[in-house]
Amino acid sequence: xxxxxEDALLRxxxxxxxxxxxxxxALIRIPSxxxxxxxxxxxxxxxxxxxxxxxxxxxYLRAEGxxxxxxxxxxxxxxxxxxxxxxxxxxxxxxxxxxxxxGEGWTVDPFAAEVVxxxxxxxxxxxxxxxxxxxxxxxxxxxxAGADLPGALEISGTADEESxxxxxxAWLAERGWFSKPRVDHVIIPEPLNVDRVCIGHRGxxxxxxxxxxxxxxxxxxxxxxxxVRHMGAVIEALERETYPALDDLETTMPVVPEGARxxxxxINSIHGGQPDVTDGLPAPxxxxxxxxxxxxRLLIEEDLDEVKARMRGLLDSLVQSRPDFRYRLRDLFEVRxxxxxxxxxxxxxxxxxxxxxxxxxxxxxxxxxTYDQKHVDRIGRLRDCIAYGPxxxxxxxxxxxYVGIDDMVASAKVMAxxxxxxxxxxxxxxxx
Length: 432
Fold this sequence. Notes:
Layout: H1 6-15, H2 17-28, H3 40-53, E1 57-62, E2 76-83, E3 90-96, E4 115-116, E5 119-121, H4 125-143, E6 152-158, H5 169-174, E7 185-188, E8 196-201, E9 203-212, H6 227-247, E10 264-272, E11 289-298, H7 304-321, E12 327-335, E13 338-339, H8 345-358, E14 363-367, H9 373-378, E15 385-387, E16 402-404, H10 405-425
Parallel strand pairs: 3-6, 3-7, 7-15, 8-14
Antiparallel strand pairs: 1-2, 2-6, 4-5, 5-16, 8-13, 9-11, 9-12, 10-11
């Protein structure tokens, strides 16, 4: 659906380039690091107060009782809604406001939001405060463009995506904020590159394997049972059986990068024996426990229950083959894969807008890691959801993270055209 004043709309977004940069910088300067969950309220109010002045109804919502929420680190979310000129669908732009810790290796201040060579640098610039700012500018320009807009526009800034989204989109979805009839289409400006439309993501199972032994004096290990050696047998079995089997599987999901089109298993950490000491030497003790945390990523073709059964089968085989082998397998976190259909309205509208703005076809992709689409789909039961934003995927969580200003402007244009098409096409609205 062509906007009746499309050229003027796109020029308006170009004219707001400096405003877009300054909004991005203001968001980056709020160090909303998670964990622990700092400055959520500050970030929510920066967004909410701006939109309130534009006529949005603004709600600040604390996800009390969710993981990590406390009076010191409250999980604040903001949802802003503006109704249009008549009955119609609702288009919702959702961005998370938390960022990961800065870490080491930066050549610039991670929270100074410096502008260098057409880029805004800082933690969260790419993932995903640049995308959040682009969605705000897109919506404001669309509202000022002089066409009737049936339905409603919503923008949200939500907590805790970097730690699972349970204090953000999951909590809101459980309360109907991401379900029909309130919301019809969701665009999440995650950093998947400006010419890509992301229609889903792989699944994930985080688990913990614990092996058990028996403590003894380190000079007489034959009197004990070494839990770390038992864990070594687990790792050997994974290398021998699991990793080759994973390499034999491939998905029809358009996952990027190429290496993620197979299921993956990462050993996140191993903890065994006595804790490290800073002075002196540890006591000579045979370790009686060892824990391994793993991260298994799943394809759409895989069944999570079967994946778990194969892991348990591998461990049970060690019980049979290895004397005194004992283990415990514990679930930590799980998300099933999700992929929306390519012919969904939000996919079609965004693909069309990318082609018009960039002059080349959009690439449909899926993310190697999860993001909040999982909660919109699983809890909200809303399939019409995608990720589209200006950031470069490979820069997320890296030192010297940045977002390109040209990409932010282009993505804001795409978001504005997509939202207009979704609001008017579904309503059978005649532009005027």
